[in-house]
Write a structure and sequence with these properties.
- The protein has helices at residues 3-20, 24-29, 49-63; strands at 31-39, 46-47, 66-80, 83-96, 99-113, 119-128.
- By secondary structure, the protein is an alpha+beta fold.
- Strands 2-1-6-5-4-3 form a 6-stranded mixed sheet.
């Protein structure tokens, strides 16, 4: 694995770890402000980090949403210059409406290197596992 690929993997691991501990501030800090999000359980694309943050807050308030744990496997990084594509299988334990739920999904996160050299997520696409 090249140094840039390792840096992208480290950025992805930081993002996933923040999600796994339900650390909203650290999780959303891993995304660029202009990031977009496609989730199979939503009827629309979320344009911008702020839109996702608002949706997350709604889930917490309305549904009692809480991430309990998250496991990432089958990870891959494709480097394309200043853009990288991270794919993985993700198993997430959640609390929704007071019930524990485990989701098995596939996820693609596109990262872009900013002017300071940081790899920030600019797009996330989540699909149910087959």
């Amino acid at each position: 694995m090249t140094e840039p690929q390792s840096a992208v993997l480290a950025a992805a691991e930081t993002l996933v770890a923040a999600f796994a501990r339900h650390d909203r501030a650290a999780y959303f800090a891993a995304f660029a402000e202009e990031a977009s999000f496609l989730f199979y359980n939503l009827d629309r694309r979320l344009d911008g980090r702020a839109a996702y943050e608002a949706e997350w807050a709604l889930w917490e308030e309305r549904d009692g949403f809480r991430v309990l744990a998250c496991r990432s496997t089958d990870r891959n990084v494709q480097l394309l210059g200043e853009v990288a594509i991270f794919t993985h299988a993700v198993e997430t334990d959640l609390s929704v409406g007071g019930e524990r739920v485990t989701n098995n999904e596939r996820e693609t996160i596109v990262f872009s290197r900013d002017s300071a050299g940081r790899w920030l997520a600019v797009h996330e696409h989540l699909s149910p596992a087959a």
